[in-house]
Amino acid sequence: MPFDPIREIAMVSMVTSYPFVLTVPATSPVRTVAELIALAKANPGKLNYSGSGVGSVHHLASELFNSMAGTEIVHVPMKGGAGELTELMAGRLDVLFEATTLTIPCIKSGKIRAVAITSRDRTSLLPGVAPVHDALPGFDVISFSGLGVTGGTPAASSAEEMKFFVEREIAKWNRMVDSRGIERQQLRSRRRLGHEKRGAARPSPCLDFRESCAFPPACAPGCRLQATDTHCCN
After folding, report:
1. Of 122, 118, 161, 125, whose CA–CA distance to 140 is shortest?
2. pTM: predicted TM-score of the whole model, two decimal places
């Protein structure tokens, strides 16, 4: 990073946080983290996962899993959107860490299977799904939004809690990037190129297209979702 966020940003408060879900195709034999680890170790380099490019939460969470489980599940970069879920449902991806907002409709419809949640504790969104932490103690991945201001601004009462959280997250992911040999130049290049559209909502391919399709005129009868950024969800 060109700056030190801990010194140059005054943390004000955590706003929200949410876990990801470790998912597999509905046809996969895997139902638990232990079964996924056993399958991956029996087939090193043969299973794959995806996410929205190098340095994304999907990528780093998957590499953290590899690092802690001693597995070699291979990264297949994609450009984001609904493509990864489409490939998972088709069985062309073996594993996917994805946000609950996108995966829950697919899980409830039986198109994919939830294996574990990435937070340390269970979530009310999927109360029957155990945390990865139960099988790999210490595994904890969440996405968060927080409020920060220019360094030197008087701290709010919860600032120290947010600062501790951000420090811990930076240290954790730096250790993982170093241990997995991920090129930091790739991460910088990805940020410069802006592969992800910030702020753009990604509709789940398992929602009714009339509610979620970004391009309604394209959703003619008989249309099927393709692995592109055009979300036609019929």
Report:
1. 118
2. 0.66
